[in-house]
Specification:
Blueprint lengths: L2 H35 L5 H22 L10 H25 L12 H13 L5 H18 L3 H6 L1 H23 L6 H23 L10 H26 L4 H7 L2 H14 L5 H18 L7
Helix pairs in contact: 1-9, 1-11, 2-8, 2-9, 3-7, 3-8, 4-7, 4-10, 5-12, 8-9, 11-12
Protein backbone atom coordinates (compact mmCIF):
# COMPACT_ATOMS: atom_id res chain seq x y z
CA UNK A 1 0.00 0.00 0.00
CA UNK A 2 1.43 3.38 -0.95
CA UNK A 3 1.59 6.33 1.40
CA UNK A 4 -1.32 8.23 -0.19
CA UNK A 5 -3.90 5.38 0.00
CA UNK A 6 -2.69 4.55 3.53
CA UNK A 7 -3.30 8.15 4.61
CA UNK A 8 -6.70 8.12 2.94
CA UNK A 9 -7.59 4.91 4.76
CA UNK A 10 -6.64 6.45 8.09
CA UNK A 11 -8.79 9.55 7.64
CA UNK A 12 -12.19 7.86 8.27
CA UNK A 13 -10.87 6.30 11.49
CA UNK A 14 -9.40 9.61 12.64
CA UNK A 15 -12.71 11.32 11.94
CA UNK A 16 -14.53 8.62 13.91
CA UNK A 17 -12.21 9.12 16.89
CA UNK A 18 -12.78 12.87 16.80
CA UNK A 19 -16.52 12.24 16.66
CA UNK A 20 -16.22 9.86 19.62
CA UNK A 21 -14.44 12.52 21.64
CA UNK A 22 -17.23 14.99 20.82
CA UNK A 23 -19.93 12.50 21.80
CA UNK A 24 -18.17 11.71 25.08
CA UNK A 25 -18.02 15.40 25.96
CA UNK A 26 -21.66 16.07 25.01
CA UNK A 27 -23.02 12.97 26.74
CA UNK A 28 -20.83 13.52 29.79
CA UNK A 29 -22.21 17.04 30.22
CA UNK A 30 -25.68 15.60 29.63
CA UNK A 31 -25.79 14.04 33.12
CA UNK A 32 -25.47 17.19 35.27
CA UNK A 33 -27.68 19.11 32.83
CA UNK A 34 -30.35 16.42 33.13
CA UNK A 35 -30.05 16.54 36.91
CA UNK A 36 -30.88 20.26 36.77
CA UNK A 37 -33.89 19.65 34.53
CA UNK A 38 -35.26 16.75 36.58
CA UNK A 39 -35.58 19.01 39.59
CA UNK A 40 -38.69 20.46 37.88
CA UNK A 41 -40.03 17.69 35.63
CA UNK A 42 -40.30 13.95 36.51
CA UNK A 43 -38.12 11.50 34.59
CA UNK A 44 -40.74 9.85 32.36
CA UNK A 45 -42.50 13.03 31.16
CA UNK A 46 -39.15 14.74 30.65
CA UNK A 47 -37.86 11.89 28.50
CA UNK A 48 -41.13 11.87 26.56
CA UNK A 49 -40.92 15.61 25.86
CA UNK A 50 -37.32 15.27 24.65
CA UNK A 51 -38.20 12.35 22.38
CA UNK A 52 -41.21 14.20 20.99
CA UNK A 53 -38.98 17.11 20.06
CA UNK A 54 -35.86 15.30 18.82
CA UNK A 55 -37.36 12.53 16.66
CA UNK A 56 -39.37 14.72 14.24
CA UNK A 57 -36.54 17.27 14.15
CA UNK A 58 -34.03 14.62 13.07
CA UNK A 59 -36.40 13.27 10.42
CA UNK A 60 -36.94 16.80 9.12
CA UNK A 61 -33.17 17.27 8.81
CA UNK A 62 -32.83 13.92 7.05
CA UNK A 63 -35.64 14.81 4.66
CA UNK A 64 -33.99 18.12 3.81
CA UNK A 65 -30.69 16.32 3.11
CA UNK A 66 -32.08 13.67 0.78
CA UNK A 67 -34.99 11.68 2.20
CA UNK A 68 -36.22 9.49 5.01
CA UNK A 69 -37.15 6.35 3.09
CA UNK A 70 -36.22 2.96 4.57
CA UNK A 71 -35.69 -0.15 2.48
CA UNK A 72 -38.39 -2.74 3.10
CA UNK A 73 -35.90 -5.40 4.19
CA UNK A 74 -34.44 -3.01 6.76
CA UNK A 75 -37.66 -2.13 8.54
CA UNK A 76 -37.74 -5.04 10.96
CA UNK A 77 -34.05 -4.66 11.97
CA UNK A 78 -34.63 -0.91 12.38
CA UNK A 79 -37.60 -1.57 14.65
CA UNK A 80 -35.50 -4.01 16.68
CA UNK A 81 -32.69 -1.47 17.00
CA UNK A 82 -35.17 1.22 18.09
CA UNK A 83 -36.60 -1.13 20.71
CA UNK A 84 -33.18 -1.72 22.27
CA UNK A 85 -31.54 1.69 21.73
CA UNK A 86 -34.48 3.91 22.67
CA UNK A 87 -37.44 2.12 24.28
CA UNK A 88 -35.64 -0.20 26.70
CA UNK A 89 -32.76 2.20 27.33
CA UNK A 90 -35.03 5.08 28.35
CA UNK A 91 -37.45 2.91 30.34
CA UNK A 92 -34.78 1.06 32.30
CA UNK A 93 -32.64 4.12 32.99
CA UNK A 94 -35.75 6.12 33.90
CA UNK A 95 -36.81 3.56 36.47
CA UNK A 96 -33.26 3.01 37.71
CA UNK A 97 -32.63 6.72 38.32
CA UNK A 98 -35.92 7.07 40.20
CA UNK A 99 -35.44 3.86 42.22
CA UNK A 100 -31.92 4.53 43.44
CA UNK A 101 -31.09 7.00 46.17
CA UNK A 102 -27.99 8.35 44.46
CA UNK A 103 -28.20 9.36 40.81
CA UNK A 104 -24.52 8.68 40.39
CA UNK A 105 -25.30 4.97 40.53
CA UNK A 106 -26.66 5.38 36.99
CA UNK A 107 -22.98 4.89 36.09
CA UNK A 108 -23.84 1.17 36.23
CA UNK A 109 -25.29 1.66 32.74
CA UNK A 110 -21.73 2.18 31.49
CA UNK A 111 -20.91 -1.45 32.03
CA UNK A 112 -22.24 -1.59 28.45
CA UNK A 113 -18.79 -2.08 26.85
CA UNK A 114 -18.38 -5.42 28.60
CA UNK A 115 -21.71 -6.70 27.30
CA UNK A 116 -21.06 -5.22 23.85
CA UNK A 117 -17.65 -6.91 23.64
CA UNK A 118 -19.23 -10.27 24.48
CA UNK A 119 -22.16 -9.84 22.08
CA UNK A 120 -19.98 -8.57 19.25
CA UNK A 121 -17.70 -11.59 19.67
CA UNK A 122 -20.66 -14.00 19.60
CA UNK A 123 -22.77 -12.31 16.92
CA UNK A 124 -20.30 -10.40 14.76
CA UNK A 125 -17.16 -12.46 15.27
CA UNK A 126 -15.11 -9.41 16.26
CA UNK A 127 -11.76 -10.44 17.79
CA UNK A 128 -11.03 -9.72 21.42
CA UNK A 129 -7.35 -8.86 21.10
CA UNK A 130 -5.14 -8.55 24.20
CA UNK A 131 -5.06 -4.71 24.02
CA UNK A 132 -8.85 -4.61 23.79
CA UNK A 133 -9.26 -7.03 26.69
CA UNK A 134 -6.78 -5.04 28.78
CA UNK A 135 -8.49 -1.78 27.86
CA UNK A 136 -11.89 -3.25 28.75
CA UNK A 137 -10.58 -4.47 32.12
CA UNK A 138 -9.05 -1.08 32.94
CA UNK A 139 -12.20 0.76 31.88
CA UNK A 140 -14.52 -1.43 33.93
CA UNK A 141 -12.16 -0.99 36.89
CA UNK A 142 -12.50 2.77 36.39
CA UNK A 143 -16.29 2.48 36.50
CA UNK A 144 -15.96 0.37 39.63
CA UNK A 145 -13.88 3.12 41.26
CA UNK A 146 -16.75 5.56 40.67
CA UNK A 147 -19.33 3.13 42.04
CA UNK A 148 -17.41 2.10 45.16
CA UNK A 149 -18.40 5.15 47.27
CA UNK A 150 -22.07 4.45 46.48
CA UNK A 151 -21.96 0.72 47.13
CA UNK A 152 -24.29 0.98 50.14
CA UNK A 153 -26.90 2.84 48.06
CA UNK A 154 -26.67 0.25 45.30
CA UNK A 155 -27.16 -2.63 47.74
CA UNK A 156 -30.10 -0.79 49.30
CA UNK A 157 -31.83 -0.50 45.90
CA UNK A 158 -31.13 -3.80 44.09
CA UNK A 159 -34.04 -3.38 41.66
CA UNK A 160 -32.69 -0.01 40.59
CA UNK A 161 -29.23 -1.49 40.04
CA UNK A 162 -30.74 -4.40 38.11
CA UNK A 163 -32.65 -1.93 35.95
CA UNK A 164 -29.41 -0.14 35.11
CA UNK A 165 -27.72 -3.43 34.18
CA UNK A 166 -30.66 -4.23 31.88
CA UNK A 167 -30.28 -0.77 30.35
CA UNK A 168 -26.61 -1.54 29.66
CA UNK A 169 -27.58 -4.86 28.05
CA UNK A 170 -30.20 -3.11 25.90
CA UNK A 171 -27.69 -0.51 24.71
CA UNK A 172 -25.16 -3.24 23.90
CA UNK A 173 -27.77 -5.27 22.00
CA UNK A 174 -28.89 -2.20 20.04
CA UNK A 175 -25.27 -1.42 19.19
CA UNK A 176 -24.69 -4.93 17.83
CA UNK A 177 -27.94 -4.80 15.82
CA UNK A 178 -26.82 -1.55 14.19
CA UNK A 179 -23.48 -3.13 13.30
CA UNK A 180 -24.96 -6.46 12.19
CA UNK A 181 -27.01 -5.15 9.28
CA UNK A 182 -26.11 -3.18 6.18
CA UNK A 183 -28.15 0.02 6.01
CA UNK A 184 -28.95 1.87 2.81
CA UNK A 185 -30.51 4.94 4.44
CA UNK A 186 -28.63 7.93 5.81
CA UNK A 187 -27.48 8.03 9.42
CA UNK A 188 -29.82 10.97 10.06
CA UNK A 189 -32.84 9.06 8.75
CA UNK A 190 -31.97 5.92 10.74
CA UNK A 191 -31.49 8.02 13.88
CA UNK A 192 -34.77 9.91 13.42
CA UNK A 193 -36.80 6.76 12.82
CA UNK A 194 -35.28 5.05 15.84
CA UNK A 195 -36.11 7.99 18.11
CA UNK A 196 -39.68 8.17 16.77
CA UNK A 197 -40.38 4.43 16.76
CA UNK A 198 -38.61 3.66 20.01
CA UNK A 199 -39.92 6.79 21.70
CA UNK A 200 -43.59 6.13 20.90
CA UNK A 201 -44.07 3.70 23.85
CA UNK A 202 -42.31 6.18 26.17
CA UNK A 203 -44.64 8.99 25.14
CA UNK A 204 -47.67 6.72 25.48
CA UNK A 205 -46.57 5.57 28.94
CA UNK A 206 -46.07 9.17 30.06
CA UNK A 207 -49.54 10.11 28.85
CA UNK A 208 -51.18 7.09 30.48
CA UNK A 209 -49.33 7.21 33.80
CA UNK A 210 -49.46 10.99 34.11
CA UNK A 211 -49.20 13.68 35.15
CA UNK A 212 -47.65 15.10 32.00
CA UNK A 213 -46.42 18.58 32.96
CA UNK A 214 -46.24 21.02 30.08
CA UNK A 215 -43.52 23.46 29.24
CA UNK A 216 -45.54 26.23 30.92
CA UNK A 217 -44.40 24.86 34.29
CA UNK A 218 -40.72 24.93 33.34
CA UNK A 219 -38.51 27.89 34.16
CA UNK A 220 -35.70 29.26 31.99
CA UNK A 221 -33.13 26.89 33.48
CA UNK A 222 -35.25 23.83 32.70
CA UNK A 223 -35.93 25.04 29.16
CA UNK A 224 -32.21 25.60 28.58
CA UNK A 225 -31.45 22.12 29.93
CA UNK A 226 -34.08 20.59 27.66
CA UNK A 227 -32.67 22.47 24.66
CA UNK A 228 -29.19 21.12 25.40
CA UNK A 229 -30.42 17.54 25.85
CA UNK A 230 -32.54 17.61 22.67
CA UNK A 231 -29.95 19.26 20.42
CA UNK A 232 -26.62 18.10 21.87
CA UNK A 233 -27.51 14.91 23.72
CA UNK A 234 -30.04 13.42 21.32
CA UNK A 235 -29.72 14.98 17.86
CA UNK A 236 -25.94 15.35 17.69
CA UNK A 237 -25.13 12.57 20.17
CA UNK A 238 -27.37 9.85 18.73
CA UNK A 239 -26.49 10.71 15.15
CA UNK A 240 -22.79 10.74 16.01
CA UNK A 241 -22.96 7.40 17.81
CA UNK A 242 -24.56 5.61 14.88
CA UNK A 243 -22.09 7.28 12.50
CA UNK A 244 -19.20 6.02 14.62
CA UNK A 245 -20.56 2.47 14.61
CA UNK A 246 -20.44 2.56 10.82
CA UNK A 247 -16.67 3.20 10.95
CA UNK A 248 -15.27 1.44 14.02
CA UNK A 249 -15.55 -2.04 15.57
CA UNK A 250 -18.19 -2.37 18.28
CA UNK A 251 -15.63 -3.15 21.00
CA UNK A 252 -13.48 -0.11 20.24
CA UNK A 253 -16.45 2.28 20.03
CA UNK A 254 -18.02 0.84 23.19
CA UNK A 255 -14.89 1.06 25.32
CA UNK A 256 -14.58 4.69 24.27
CA UNK A 257 -17.90 5.43 25.99
CA UNK A 258 -16.22 4.73 29.35
CA UNK A 259 -15.00 8.33 29.26
CA UNK A 260 -18.60 9.58 29.46
CA UNK A 261 -19.32 8.89 33.17
CA UNK A 262 -15.92 10.31 34.13
CA UNK A 263 -16.70 13.51 32.23
CA UNK A 264 -20.14 13.47 33.86
CA UNK A 265 -18.66 13.32 37.36
CA UNK A 266 -16.09 16.03 36.62
CA UNK A 267 -18.67 18.31 34.98
CA UNK A 268 -21.04 17.74 37.91
CA UNK A 269 -18.29 18.98 40.19
CA UNK A 270 -17.82 22.07 38.03
CA UNK A 271 -21.51 22.85 37.44
CA UNK A 272 -23.18 21.51 40.60
CA UNK A 273 -20.38 21.76 43.14
CA UNK A 274 -20.25 18.02 43.78
CA UNK A 275 -17.01 16.92 45.48
CA UNK A 276 -14.13 15.18 43.71
CA UNK A 277 -12.12 12.67 45.70
CA UNK A 278 -9.58 9.92 45.26
CA UNK A 279 -12.10 7.59 43.57
CA UNK A 280 -12.80 10.14 40.81
CA UNK A 281 -9.08 10.69 40.17
CA UNK A 282 -8.41 6.94 40.12
CA UNK A 283 -11.31 6.40 37.73
CA UNK A 284 -10.01 9.09 35.38
CA UNK A 285 -6.53 7.54 35.32
CA UNK A 286 -7.89 4.03 34.65
CA UNK A 287 -10.24 5.16 31.88
CA UNK A 288 -7.52 7.22 30.20
CA UNK A 289 -5.23 4.18 30.32
CA UNK A 290 -8.01 2.07 28.77
CA UNK A 291 -8.51 4.57 25.96
CA UNK A 292 -4.76 4.74 25.31
CA UNK A 293 -4.65 0.96 24.89
CA UNK A 294 -7.69 0.71 22.64
CA UNK A 295 -7.03 3.77 20.48
CA UNK A 296 -3.35 3.25 19.81
CA UNK A 297 -2.63 2.71 16.10
CA UNK A 298 -2.02 -0.83 14.99
CA UNK A 299 0.96 -2.04 12.97
CA UNK A 300 1.29 -0.62 9.47
CA UNK A 301 -0.11 -2.79 6.69
CA UNK A 302 1.63 -3.24 3.35
Amino acid sequence: MTAAPAAAARRPAQGALLLLATISLLWGLNWPVMKLALSDIPVLPFRALCLLASGPMMLALAYARGGIGVNRRERLPLLLAAFFNVTLWHLFTGYGVSAMQDGRASIIAYTMPGWAALLSRLVLGEPLTPPRLAGLALGIAGIGALLLPDLDHIIAAPLGALSMILAALAWAAGTVVMKRFQWSGSTAALTGWQICLGGAPIVLAALVIGPFPGLARADARTLAAMFYIVVCGMLIGQWGWFAVLDRLPVTVASISTLAIPVIGVLSSAALLGEPIGASEVLSLVLVLAALALVMRPGPARR
